[in-house]
Amino acid sequence: MKFEVDVAGRQRTVGVDRAAEGGKFRVVVDGQVHELEAQPTALGLSVVFQAGGRSLDAAATERSGGEWLIQLPHLDVAVVVDGQRHARGRQNRAGADGEQRVTAPMPGRVLRVLVKPGDKVEHRQGLLVVEAMKMENELTAPKAGTVTEVAVTEGSSVEAGRLLVVIE
Amino acid sequence: MKFEVDVAGRQRTVGVDRAAEGGKFRVVVDGQVHELEAQPTALGLSVVFQAGGRSLDAAATERSGGEWLIQLPHLDVAVVVDGQRHARGRQNRAGADGEQRVTAPMPGRVLRVLVKPGDKVEHRQGLLVVEAMKMENELTAPKAGTVTEVAVTEGSSVEAGRLLVVIE
Amino acid sequence: MTRRTKVLIANRGEIAVRVMRACRELGLGTVAVYSECDRTALHVRLADEAHAIGPGPAADSYLRIDKIVDVAVRSGASLVHPGYGFLAENEDFAQACADAGLTFVGPSPSAIAQMGSKTAARRVATAAGVPVVPGTEDPFADDAPDAMIAAEARRIGYPLLVKAVAGGGGKGMRTVRSPADLSAAIQTARSEAGSAFGDAAVYLERLLLKARHIEIQLLADTFGTVVPFVERECSIQRRHQKVVEESPSLALTEPTRRAMAECAAAVARTVGYTSAGTIEFLLDEDGDFYFLEMNTRLQVEHPVTEVVTGIDLVQWQLRIALGERLTIDPARAITPRGHAIECRLYAEDPDQGFMPSPGLVRALSVPGGPGVRDDRGVAAGFEIPLFYDSMIAKLIVSGDSRAEAISRLSRVLDEYRVIGVRTTLPFFRWLAARPEFISGQFDTTYLDTLLAERKGQAFVEATSDDADDVAIVAALAAWFRAHQASAGVATPAAGGWRRAARTEALR
Amino acid sequence: MTRRTKVLIANRGEIAVRVMRACRELGLGTVAVYSECDRTALHVRLADEAHAIGPGPAADSYLRIDKIVDVAVRSGASLVHPGYGFLAENEDFAQACADAGLTFVGPSPSAIAQMGSKTAARRVATAAGVPVVPGTEDPFADDAPDAMIAAEARRIGYPLLVKAVAGGGGKGMRTVRSPADLSAAIQTARSEAGSAFGDAAVYLERLLLKARHIEIQLLADTFGTVVPFVERECSIQRRHQKVVEESPSLALTEPTRRAMAECAAAVARTVGYTSAGTIEFLLDEDGDFYFLEMNTRLQVEHPVTEVVTGIDLVQWQLRIALGERLTIDPARAITPRGHAIECRLYAEDPDQGFMPSPGLVRALSVPGGPGVRDDRGVAAGFEIPLFYDSMIAKLIVSGDSRAEAISRLSRVLDEYRVIGVRTTLPFFRWLAARPEFISGQFDTTYLDTLLAERKGQAFVEATSDDADDVAIVAALAAWFRAHQASAGVATPAAGGWRRAARTEALR
Lengths: 168, 168, 507, 507
Prior knowledge:
The complex is a heterotetramer, with 2 copies of chain A and 2 copies of chain C.
Chain A: E1 2-7, E2 10-18, E3 24-29, E4 32-40, E5 45-49, E6 55-62, E7 67-72, E8 75-81, E9 100-103, E10 108-113, E11 120-121, E12 126-132, E13 135-140, E14 145-150, E15 157-158, E16 163-167
Antiparallel strand pairs in A: 1-2, 1-8, 2-3, 3-4, 4-5, 5-6, 6-7, 7-8, 9-16, 10-12, 10-15, 11-14, 12-13, 14-16
Chain C: E1 6-9, H1 13-25, E2 29-35, H2 42-46, E3 49-54, H3 65-75, E4 79-81, H4 91-99, E5 103-104, H5 109-116, H6 118-127, H7 146-156, E6 160-168, E7 171-176, H8 182-197, E8 202-206, E9 212-220, E10 226-228, E11 232-238, E12 241-247, H9 254-270, E13 275-283, E14 289-295, H10 302-309, H11 313-321, H12 330-333, E15 339-346, E16 348-349, E17 355-356, E18 363-365, E19 372-376, E20 391-399, H13 402-415, E21 417-419, H14 425-432, H15 435-439, H16 446-454, H17 464-482, H18 496-506
Parallel strand pairs in C: 1-2, 1-4, 2-3, 4-5
Antiparallel strand pairs in C: 6-7, 6-8, 9-10, 9-11, 9-13, 11-12, 12-15, 13-14, 15-20, 16-17, 18-21, 19-20
């Protein structure tokens, strides 16, 4: 099977073929071949690479729309498999081009809106302040650009995934 | 729904009715009513009894043929739900009447057979010695009675659940 | 058979679990209370009995004095332990318990009231002969004019702190570096304090530069005995919220340790304190220290003290509440055996400005082995609610020396896995390797300064190899999913043979 | 950048995990080996790299010296840690490592050989001036006539023990109370020893009545420094297999402790011992003690010593192997801080004569909080293989006093849950409440005698209320199963909202 995996904005093509024996796989990432053994565990996947025996204890949590949270021992990364990006996209994809939709990462209440359509914003400039879990959290611009839309008003309650601001 | 639950040889009739609200149940055990809230957890079930608020953190592992291993905080008990007793019955159901089939609780090798058909055996008398996990384990009679069948010979390897001895 | 003494724990999460453990070890029964979203929480499952007290929002459940006292009375509990947060420092709750004939496991309502107001507490410290940080004597009235506040600020000097009189946990607190920012800081602090504590009053305090936050845990019984403990170092803070705590502190000389402990005991005696409490100090660069405030409750970071002294503070809280005399050897309480470090593990995304990231904790792998203490409030399968603090666990490590504790911390953080939600683990792994942390060269501004300098840079920059690994794992998980082999959720639905059968089918 | 020093761990289960933790804390790389059935074992998942070495049976994998040495060389490991069991006391393995240029983390092959033969070890002890239990000087030849053995038995006196010269873990050991049972005991001991150790040789030793098993842990470096530690009490045994260990022992006076420690060090010096090792003694009712044997490796019960001394024995093993000098203060090593108790938790059914009950560990809930150390070799979702010892975990608790440690043990055992397989937890819960255990009135025959008296009676007799609870839970589980709500396996298949959706659907 072939998968397109979007890791932090960079697409990788990954071919997965099960070898004859159970649990052994041949995985090809952008042309590079990895022979490995992969076993499901209660956490996720235990992977041992044949070359060098490197052991990787990883977890994969499926969100929706092809989005997965991949957790390596030292790293959490959200990826999209097969490019079926869900409407509830990642807020922070710094460096990526085009329209950036800033969505609420969690339910809360909009305390302050700091920008208006037409404003030029710097990378990481504050856009709005959302109160959630008793703390005030400032949401910042994922890239420099121009605010094209502000989809909420001060005082409104928002659900996770709700569109807040669009930057172009 | 009604269930017949065989707990250590004694049958109990248990009616389970979900109350209007999610997670709330009305459970009737042999006529006695319990109002409770039951929620699945990663371990099993978290149960809170309405009367007195008693909290019970229990686990239920389904075997096969209606057999379940029920684990309370201080107690492990195998039960059969709805009487569909599996061929791989419990070895030790002391005090029960009728034929008792002693089966191998785990794979191993029969080192010694200590009884032959026709032998009278006491409760807990040794029947055979099975080597498993490098230890010699003596299987004993689940009740007093007469050996009617010895289904294995010394030196044979046995799978879990294999019939070893029948006592009547 | 005499009826077993029961303790109602008026809290949730790890601290409710912690208190229940102490109850169990003393042979006391445990009564939990829970809100709707906590129906399967660990504290409910571990309690002897559990009672629902309302919907998720704390104001409707864990802050409802009436409901909690009612459950205590109905369940036949004779003691009430408040944990920390929620009603722990609410003198009305302590009073309501007393009025209902329940023993509140904590100080008297009057001690709570006196020390709960930060301005009143400063007066107590002064009366006890303990130096305080320069600041306003009294809180400002809600309608105090900006000009008056500005004048007071000039008297104290910049930089300064706006602090909520009823504050705690860094809420309602703002740093002001110049007069221009004062008015906005007052406004946000008041608003945050009002919503968090129901009391919008604030006051000003000078911001000591390069100061360390050092605190003294103490226990006091009802017979007048006060025992102070070896200090805790809590200078690693983010927005005035402690992130890492350790004991002992590298910054204290033995004479300063003893002097600070004596000051702490003096404050406690002045206010007629009983139960466990903590006196917080600021230690400046010259080695001088100042009273900051008192926490009239058990603190989040109490385990580091327990680990280095071998003394169970929560058992002692309960024993004191049951009328026992404190028989701890004071010399032992002040002498650390080895070194302990605690990390507060949150369901927050450190790469998104520590934004809370609640959700379902799908699986957990908690490290073990030597020198690890696991104080967790969450089990696998639990959905971290939106309504409360998003702390998942406290991780406490210890070692013979601080260096051993830090190398253990790194090992343990690498092992720790929380699957399904983002946590502050990547942040802690980064912090544990920082040279300033390892050498102990930090003050209360250290972390905020460093974070500001990083400008949101990720704590773990994924290498190209990492990205390959991520792609491989994602593709494999998708492959297993497509083949119905429950990748990512491998806990099989039944006994071993069923799993074996499935494994076979996979071949 | 210099290449990181790697350690190959030639073991599995909790001890492989334990050793890896020490490696990590010292900054050493970890190489695991695994058999086919251990592909998802914890030690594989925690290692930096892992290499398959063959099928499940130990003789084809964990006992294959050739394969393990080959992996060590190929992976670039420079040290090999054997753990306990398997090849830990195999001088050929130690020699093979040396021949391949690998540092074996343990004593020299000659020390292993000398102390590995129980009869040779007894001669070493005698040479060191340490009293030994009366017994046969030399092992019996395989074809030694029964009459000759019987004559030797008469000389020693009954009751006596038949012991495998290469024995360990209670295997190949039989108690003989009268001459009539001697021949059968010799036969079973030889058969068990032959299959377990590949060496059927046995010898006889007098069975000391009402004796306690007390042992002294020691560390020895390559510069001749030997440091003995405070004793471990290991008298709670079933069929000569330790079940519960603690430190310190209630039975030792301070002079006896010091004398025993000195004897232990003398034996170690006589044999030129290096690394960690343990000298086992029997302590009789009069307070006299006798050398029993030496274990030339890390022991299962080493954590209780680590907990009461704060010294990491495995780190020291590695540091000694790397050529470091032992710098532990001997006074500290022999002075316990508090009390520690270890339980060996097995996948065995205590109500079926402790029959192994391997299978899938569906879920785990490991207790935390103060005074708990979790040394586990199994994670949720792991199928305990049939091929090895069925130990799941070691549970170590500590307290300020033995009484506190025991009340903590009870609390912790109540919290500990292993779902899917039967374990010895119910047995330990029963034991922790036994008056003889609580008062410390036991010897090595205590547990076997008590178990014999119980005649297989269940450790927890289910009350009628319990049976009701069981029926309720079973019916509810069946109900949830019928409604597809994954009762018993609630870990949801995906993120929180999917679960929420399902919960909604349930309403």
